[in-house]
Design a protein that fits this description.
The structure holds two protein chains of two kinds. By secondary structure, chain A is an alpha+beta fold. Helices cover 25% and strands 36% of the residues of chain A. In chain A, strand 11 (238-247) and strand 12 (253-257) form a beta hairpin. Classes of the chains: A alpha+beta, B mainly alpha.
C-alpha cells in the first residue's frame, strides 16, 4: 500500500543536542501507529516535525508522497490532539470544534452543522453551548478529538492525550479511540510513554531511545522478540542472561552463565554464536516449583509485588543474580511461599529469545 | 479566646486608619466643593452646587477637559498597542539580550516625571513636535506603555504555549492566530491596560505642563487657577477628576478580576 506518511533519514538537532537522528519510517493509510519511548527519547520532537512545528535539520517528511519541506504548520493537514488539549478557553465547545473549518473558509451554517455532528458522534452533543471550563476531563478530551477530526484529515497526531486522565477513564478513552480509528480509517500516530496504551491500541509500535528507532513491529512481535537489549529492558519484566554460547553434546546451543549452562532455543540464529549473546526470558514464561523443564535454577524468594491480578516475584539464584517471575495471583496462593524459601525456577528452552549482546 | 476577637478588631481599626489617612484629604476637598463658603473653614456653610456651576460655565475648564479626554484616549490606545507589542515579543520569542530589553522597556516610569517632562520638551521641540496636543500624547505614551506592558504580560504568561501552536495546527496562519487566539485571550488585559493608561494620562501634570504649550489639560488648568487665586472651583474640578480616574481604575480592576476569577475556576475544574 502507498504510505500516507514517509519519514526519510530525518535528523533534528538543537545546538549540540541531537533530539532525533537517522529516523526512517513508512506509515500506511488507516494504520494505528504508536511511538513509544521515555521522556527525551525524541518521540514528541518527531511528532512536532510531522506537524511542522519543528523543521528537520536533515532529511524529509513526505505527506501523501509530497515533500513537506518549507511548509508552515497551517499549510499542512496534520491536526494534533495536544497533551494539554490546548482548547481555546474563550470559545465554547462548538466554537472550538468549528475552528479548523472556519480557518478553511467553510461557511458559518455548514461548519456549525459539521461541528455538531462530530459532537454527536463523540456523545457530547448536549454540551455544545457549554464553556470549556464547565466540562470534566473526559468531556474535554472528546472536544479536543472532535476539534482535530472535524476537517477529516488523512493523519491524526496524538501527543500523550490520555496522560492526564485517571486509569479508569483512560481505558474508556482507549476504546473510543480504537473504535473511531477503525470506523474512520484515518491514520493515527500516537505518542506515549505508556506500554499499556501503546500495546492495547496500536497496529504497530515504534520504540525510540535517544533519538533513534530501536524497534518497529506489531505489539506481540515486540513483546515476544525484542530486537535489542534496550527494548527488552524497556518493556520491563524480562530476564536477561548474558554469556558466550557453545555447542552441547546433544548438538543444541547452550549459554555459559554464573548459574551454569542454560539451553538456548533451537531457532536461535547460529550466526550469533561467534560472540556474546543475551538470552531474554519473559517473566511470565518462568514456572516456579513445577515439573522440571529444560532450564531450571534453584532460587530463593526475596520479595513480591502485587500488580492487580498478577504478582511479580523477585528471586535470587544460587549464582547471585536477580530473577523476576510473573504469575497470576491465584497461582501464587496455591504455592504458599515464605520469604527466603528455596524453590526451583524453570522454563522451556523454546521460550527464550536470543539477540547479539551489546558490548 | 478574647485575644482572638480583639485581634480582628485591632486590624479593622488599623485598616480603617490607613484608609482615612489616604482618603481624608480627597474627601475634605470633595466636601468643601459642596460648601457655599468661599474659604474652607469649619463649621461648614450651606450646601451648594455653585462651584460646580461656575466650573461648568468656564470655557477654559471645558477646553482643558476636552484636551485631557482626547489626550487620555489617544494615549490609552497608543500605549496599549505598544505595551501589547512589547509583551507579546517577550512571551513569544527568545533572543539575545532579552532581560536588557525588558529592563529598558519597563524603565520610563522610574524616571522622575520632571526629568522626563523636561527631556521630552527638549527632544520634541528639536523635532518641531512640541506645543501641540499630540505632544502630550507622545510623551504620555512613553510614560504609560510600560504599565500596559506589565498588565498584558501578566495575562500572556497565563496562556498555554500550545494554544497558539494549536491554532496554526488547525490551519490559522500567524496573523489569523493573532486575531483569533492571542488577542481574544489577552482581551481582558487589553481593556484593563486601556483604562489604566487613560487614568494615568488624565491625571498626569508635570509632563503635560512641559510639552503642552497652550493646550492646557485639566491638571495644568487647576494649577494655573491656583496660581491666580484660591477658589473652591478647584475642589469642584478635583472632585470631577478624582471620580473620572477612580472610575477608570475601578473598571480596569473589575475586568482584570473577572478574567482571573474565570481562569481560577477553569483551573479548578480542569483535571
Amino acid at each position: 500500500m502507498e504510505p500516507v506518511l514517509k519519514i526519510v533519514d530525518v535528523e533534528k538537532s538543537f545546538g549540540d543536542f541531537r533530539a532525533v537522528t537517522g529516523v526512517n519510517l513508512e506509515i500506511v493509510r488507516g494504520e494505528f501507529l504508536a511511538i513509544m519511548g521515555s521522556s527525551g527519547s525524541g518521540k514528541s520532537t518527531l511528532l512536532r516535525m510531522i506537524a511542522g512545528l519543528e523543521a528537520p535539520t536533515k532529511g524529509d517528511i513526505l505527506l501523501n508522497g509530497r515533500s513537506t519541506r518549507g511548509l508552515a504548520p497551517h499549510e499542512r493537514d496534520t491536526p494534533m490532539v495536544w497533551q494539554s488539549l490546548a482548547l481555546f478557553p474563550f470559545l465554547n465547545v462548538v466554537e472550538n470544534v468549528e475552528f479548523g473549518l472556519k480557518m478553511r473558509g467553510v461557511s458559518a451554517a455548514e461548519r456549525r452543522r459539521r461541528a455538531l455532528s462530530w459532537l454527536e458522534r463523540l456523545e457530547i452533543g448536549r454540551f455544545a453551548d457549554r464553556a470549556i471550563d464547565e466540562l470534566s476531563g473526559g468531556q474535554r478530551q472528546r472536544v479536543a478529538l472532535a476539534r482535530a477530526l472535524v476537517t477529516e484529515p488523512p493523519v491524526l497526531l496524538l501527543d500523550e492525550p490520555l496522560s492526564a486522565l485517571d486509569a479508569h477513564l483512560s481505558v474508556r478513552m482507549q476504546a473510543v479511540l480504537t473504535n473511531l480509528q477503525r470506523e474512520l480509517g484515518i491514520t493515527f500516530i500516537y505518542v506515549t510513554h505508556s506500554h499499556s496504551e501503546a500495546f492495547a491500541m496500536a497496529d504497530r509500535v515504534v520504540i525510540m531511545s535517544e533519538g533513534r528507532i530501536e524497534q518497529i513491529g506489531a505489539p506481540k512481535e515486540i513483546y515476544l522478540r525484542p530486537s535489542t537489549r534496550f527494548v527488552a529492558e524497556f518493556l520491563g519484566s524480562n530476564n536477561i542472561f548474558t554469556g558466550r554460547p557453545e555447542k552441547g553434546a546433544d548438538g543444541g546451543g547452550y549459554l555459559r552463565t554464573g548459574d551454569g549452562l542454560l539451553k538456548l532455543p533451537a531457532d536461535a540464529d547460529p550466526a550469533l554464536f561467534d560472540g556474546e549473546v543475551d538470552l531474554i526470558v519473559s517473566a511470565d514464561r518462568i514456572v516456579l516449583g513445577g515439573p522440571s523443564q529444560a532450564n531450571s535454577l534453584p532460587c530463593r524468594l526475596i520479595g513480591e509485588e502485587f500488580v492487580g491480578a498478577s504478582v511479580n516475584l523477585y528471586l535470587e539464584t544460587e549464582g547471585g543474580r536477580d530473577l523476576v517471575v510473573q504469575m497470576p495471583q491465584r497461582q501464587l496462593d496455591g504455592l504458599s511461599l515464605q520469604r527466603g524459601a528455596a524453590i526451583a525456577a524453570s522454563w522451556s528452552d523454546a521460550d527464550g529469545h536470543v539477540i547479539r549482546a551489546t558490548s | 479566646m478574647a485575644d482572638r476577637i480583639k485581634r480582628p478588631a485591632a486590624l479593622w481599626l488599623y485598616t480603617g486608619g490607613i484608609y482615612l489617612f489616604v482618603f481624608a484629604p480627597i474627601a475634605a476637598s470633595f466636601v468643601f466643593s459642596l460648601n457655599a463658603d468661599r474659604f474652607p473653614t469649619l463649621p461648614l456653610g450651606g450646601f451648594s452646587l455653585d462651584w460646580y456651576a461656575r466650573v461648568f460655565t468656564d470655557p477654559a475648564v471645558w477646553e482643558a477637559f476636552s484636551h485631557s479626554a482626547l489626550a487620555a484616549l489617544a494615549t490609552g490606545v497608543l500605549a496599549t498597542f505598544l505595551g501589547f507589542g512589547a509583551a507579546y515579543t517577550d512571551y513569544r520569542y527568545k533572543f539575545f539580550g532579552k532581560s536588557a530589553y525588558l529592563a529598558i522597556a519597563l524603565l520610563p516610569p522610574t524616571v522622575p516625571v520632571i526629568v522626563l517632562g523636561l527631556s521630552m520638551l527638549a527632544y520634541l521641540s528639536r523635532l518641531a513636535l512640541s506645543g501641540a496636543l499630540y505632544s502630550i500624547v507622545i510623551a504620555h505614551a512613553v510614560l504609560c506603555a510600560p504599565f500596559a506592558m506589565a498588565i498584558i504580560r501578566l495575562r500572556l504568561s497565563q496562556m498555554d504555549s500550545a494554544l497558539e501552536a494549536a491554532s496554526w495546527n488547525l490551519g490559522a496562519g500567524p496573523w489569523r492566530a493573532m486575531r483569533h487566539v492571542v488577542l481574544p485571550f489577552a482581551a481582558p488585559s487589553l481593556v484593563s491596560a486601556l483604562f489604566l493608561t487613560m487614568a494615568i494620562s488624565f491625571d498626569e501634570y508635570a509632563i503635560a505642563w512641559f510639552v503642552s504649550g497652550l493646550n492646557e489639560t485639566v491638571p495644568v488648568r487647576v494649577l494655573s487657577i491656583l496660581q491666580g487665586s484660591v477658589s473652591p472651583e478647584i475642589n469642584a474640578i478635583g472632585g470631577i477628576v478624582f471620580l473620572t480616574s477612580i472610575l477608570l481604575v475601578v473598571a480596569a480592576q473589575v475586568v482584570h478580576l473577572r478574567s482571573s476569577r474565570r481562569d481560577a475556576r477553569s483551573a479548578r475544574t480542569g483535571d
